[in-house]
Amino acid sequence: MTGTVVLDASAALALLIDPGPAGEQVAARLDGATVVAPDLLPYEVTNVLRRHRNAGRLSETEARLALDGLHALSIDLWPHAVLADRVWALGGNLSCYDAAYVALAERLGAVLLTADARIAGAPGVTCPVEVVELDR
């Protein structure tokens, strides 16, 4: 699909470590799209991959392959400074992390791709939000 898509950490993780329908859904949605994210995305994804490795949910090799996969993605990362005011304004309804993805999607008139349905229903969110159904 074409257009600009803001990829959040939950959707990125589905793409990187979920071989089932959720990962496939994210891959299909990003195909042909311009993918953007706040510059916190790599840190969030790395943190979750380390937690999964430390808890034994991923092997060291699986976690490193997922991290390499993240680095191979063509993602335009946006700095905090250009999003900070909107992130602050959304702070009563979302974590600063989630608000950064929303702020970027709003700024660019883009869709936010996430696996976190709470973002779609949060007061004050004005961007379109597509929610990926995670495999349980």
Automatic annotation (TrEMBL):
Protein name: Ribonuclease VapC
Binding site for Mg(2+): D8, D98
Location of the PIN domain: 5-120
Protein EC: 3.1.-.-
Function (record text): Toxic component of a toxin-antitoxin (TA) system. An RNase.
Matching HAMAP family: VapC_Nob1
Classification via Pfam families: PIN (PF01850)
